[in-house]
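Dissemination and training. As part of the outreach component of the grant, students in the summer workshop were shown how a complex can be specified as a set of sequence lines and then modelled as a single object. The example used during the hands-on session is reproduced here so that future cohorts can follow it. Participants entered these lines:
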Amino acid sequence: MSRGGRSIAPAPDPPSPAPERHDAAGHEPLLSIGAAAAQAGVTERALRYYQELGLLAPSAHTKGGMRRYSQKDLERVARIRELQALLGLNLDEIAVILRNDDRTAEIRLAYFDDRTGDVERKRLLRESLTLATEMRATVETKRQALDSFLHDLDARIDRLRHLLDEE
Amino acid sequence: MSRGGRSIAPAPDPPSPAPERHDAAGHEPLLSIGAAAAQAGVTERALRYYQELGLLAPSAHTKGGMRRYSQKDLERVARIRELQALLGLNLDEIAVILRNDDRTAEIRLAYFDDRTGDVERKRLLRESLTLATEMRATVETKRQALDSFLHDLDARIDRLRHLLDEE
DNA sequence: CAAAAATCTTCCGTTAACGTTAAAGTCGGG
DNA sequence: CCCGACTTTAACGTTAACGGAAGATTTTTG
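and obtained this result:
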């Protein structure tokens, strides 16, 4: 079914602007690099380094050229740390994932934009799906490994407890 | 209850020598560093490095001073890699864990040796138990994180599939 | 508006976990 | 016992992910 002129299918969550904490003038509060680093639990150097690698660009800059971070930026930092700690990925691998996330977000936006062609839309969705599925596989593998590791540990703990109780 | 002169409690698996693949003369086959590295899926350098850090000493040496690795040695290598990949521990942290494993193994051997003092034995067991329990906690935490990560991924995949099916 | 505090860019330093190469010694088959 | 393949130690090199300091600039604060 074509999607050029308004689909009939129940539209999946239109991309709403998301509720924000505006200030009086209506802008979201932006953080300096110091505050952002503190909030995110990383160093300023790390933030600059992520930017250098193209993982994270601050949402805004002052006239003088100082970085200003938004809440979304902080979430992105959290994501980076999670991927580092949880999956042991390096920053280059993480960059790939984040770029794909960004693409998917773009797709979601473009999804409601009639200028986006059906074919292109479909191609992008398939691409995202493939990537997500691949990632799922590696995560699942790791989870299984962790699980059996946990069971071994439990067995070991039981044995130790047993030896102690027998004294 | 004292353990100086033979315990009454049902003895937990006496430390049996474990079934080995002996050769004709009764020795287990030992591998050269090249073969060991190949089997373990690591480089020779890595094996030498682990030894340098005190993580892994080859079970034997030739007269000339060349390293000979046993199957247990290879298992130890596997353990090292597992702790690295799964938990993201560094080699120093792994060294601590392995040393504790070794101590625990010694205790199991000494279990039937009356020369080992009760107090000392108990202290060592408690120590191992503490370490294992701490480790369990961190592993559990990590597993939970991985799990929720996996669920997020699944949700994302579902959404993508949905968008595709609607075309 | 002036001083203090925070940031900017640039560049060199650091640590972990090996990689690589060189020179010398050891092993195993013929 | 000889030679080619494999190992040894020692030493220097490499990469990732920042750490830290310098000197200039910007922002904030009294």
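Chain A touches chain B at residues 1, 3, 7, 9, 12, 82, 85-86, 88, 104, 111, 118, 121-122, 125-126, 128-129, 132-133, 135-136, 139-140, 142-143, 145-147, 149-150, 153-154, 156-157, 159-164, 166-167 (CB under 8 Å). Students were then asked to discuss how this feature might be tested experimentally.
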